[in-house]
Design brief:
InterPro entries: MFS, MFS_dom, MFS_trans_sf, MFS_Transporters. The structure is a single chain. The protein has 444 residues and is mainly alpha-helical. The protein has a single domain, classed as Up-down Bundle (Growth Hormone, Chain: A), CATH 1.20.1250. Helix content is 74%, strand content 1%. It has 20 helices and two strands. The chain has a two-stranded antiparallel sheet. Helix 1 runs antiparallel to helix 8 and helix 16 runs antiparallel to helix 17. About 4% of the residues have low confidence.
């Protein structure tokens, strides 16, 4: 990599890790909110706190994470990525400061909305920056994915460890600090955002049915409502519509399986809370301020959840390599087919014992993130360079916007049905994505 590549990759790795640190720390707090709050008080009405209602609260923030990606994708084609990434980091810091000061679940909901709106601009900004500014694009995407998965795994782990000695509100305040520091760094970063496009003389790339890269606002993005409509129509009259359906299924599965996973794990054999006094020597307990009565117990499900997500680092790497070695359409079909199988066997295998659960959990964490580089590369193949920000905006509208409904689906099913019904539903979603991959391979 040259100096410009390293500057860009360093920034997007930092920002990507931050985004997913906060995103996947939220489910750690969900189990606390379920026990701490009894009602959601809207003034004119009150609602009991259940997995269904809390799922709706969390989904509101996660939905903005995706819905804001579309306007973010439009803006990035005009103002550039660095400014949006800086604003994203600053907004996420502010949201977790607000979360740490929240006196009620209503303010928690507001903080999650601020987080979702702030984080939403990252993926179109970061991915457009990688695709247009980094000459060694494949390597850049690989490092970018690895950093995201480190945030996905380490974020919940750090939150779980801090919860051993701090209240959840204090943990939220502590977590806000790294994003604030990262925002200061991002605001001063310097690089050429279009170096790779300039070096190629204007990216040719395969735009698929979306049209030739040079014939669809290849250098200026969209600058009016009319151009937004025409460019969007150009995207969705071709095979990109199938790609969009795939990423939508990916988001539903992702959010559906992860939002309440710590709580689901807590109900399995072998996940009883463990007092700290059973694990640490008395001298260390006194330093931590933990009394002999045990203090806050260690929650094994939080650490299993974090470990499952950490396995995704390897999944991201393998998925990135697969994009260079196999047809991305067949890669999508195979990986989503395996996710469907894992959803069907997860609970039966988990109830056998801890070792089988470790095996099936590792496979789930691995495969859940193999699909991400595959669909990111597919978007790049089926869209023109000039509206790449818009294309990734639509992509993450599907992944995190529509996909956020997976949290509502999961919460509602767990309130009125059983975990078995939830995992069967997730299997059906993954199977649909696998079928779409096969159709895309034959029509794209």
């Amino acid at each position: 990599m040259n100096r410009n590549d390293r500057s860009i990759v360093g920034l997007v790795m930092l920002a990507h890790g931050m985004v997913h640190t906060y995103e996947l720390s939220i489910p750690i707090f969900v189990t606390i909110w379920l026990s701490q709050y009894e009602v959601i008080d809207l003034g004119i009405a009150q609602f009991p706190v259940t997995t269904a209602t809390l799922g709706a609260v969390v989904t509101a923030g996660y939905a903005l994470f995706g819905l804001g990606a579309l306007p973010g994708g439009i803006v990035v084609d005009h103002v550039g990525s660095r400014r949006l990434i800086s604003a994203c980091l600053l907004g996420m810091a502010g949201s977790f400061f607000l979360l740490g000061l929240a006196p009620s679940l209503l303010v928690v909901a507001l903080a999650l909305l601020v987080w979702g709106a702030s984080a939403s601009v990252y993926h179109p900004a970061g991915l457009a920056l990688l695709s247009k500014g980094v000459e060694e694009r494949g390597t850049g995407f690989a490092y970018h994915g690895i950093a995201g998965n480190l945030g996905i795994g380490l974020g919940p782990l750090v939150a779980a460890v801090l919860l051993l000695v701090l209240d959840w509100t204090t943990v939220a305040l502590v977590l806000a600090v790294p994003a604030l520091v990262a925002a200061a760094y991002a605001s001063r970063a310097e690089f050429d955002e279009t170096a790779a496009v300039a070096a190629d003389g204007g990216e040719d790339g395969n735009a698929g049915d979306a049209g030739d890269a040079g014939g669809s606002k290849a250098s200026t993005g969209v600058s009016s409502l009319g151009e937004f409509v025409s460019e969007s129509r150009r995207l969705f009259t071709g095979s990109f519509v199938l790609v969009f359906l795939v990423v939508m299924c990916s988001g539903l599965y992702y959010r559906g399986v992860l939002t309440f996973l710590p709580g689901l794990l807590a109900d399995l054999p072998g996940f009883d809370p463990i007092p700290l006094t059973a694990l640490l020597p008395e001298s260390l307990l006194s330093v931590l301020g933990v009394s002999g009565s045990g203090g806050r117990p260690l929650q094994p499900e939080n650490y299993f959840y974090s470990g499952l997500l950490m396995v995704g680092v390897l999944g991201q790497y393998v998925g990135g390599k697969l994009t260079d070695r196999v047809s991305v359409e067949y890669g999508i079909a195979g990986s989503f087919g395996f996710l469907a199988l894992l959803a069907l066997v997860f609970l039966p295998v988990a109830n056998i014992g801890l070792v089988p659960l470790l095996a099936v959990g590792s496979l789930l964490g691995f495969t859940l993130f193999v699909v991400q580089p595959l669909y990111q590369a597919t978007v790049a193949e089926y869209t023109p360079a000039g509206t790449r920000g818009l294309s990734y905006g639509f992509t993450y509208l599907g992944v995190f916007g529509i996909g956020a409904l997976g949290g509502v689906i999961a919460g509602t099913i767990l309130t009125y049905a059983t975990p078995t019904v939830l995992f069967t539903t997730l299997a059906a979603i993954a199977a649909a994505a696998a079928v779409l991959g096969i159709v895309l391979s034959r029509t794209g």
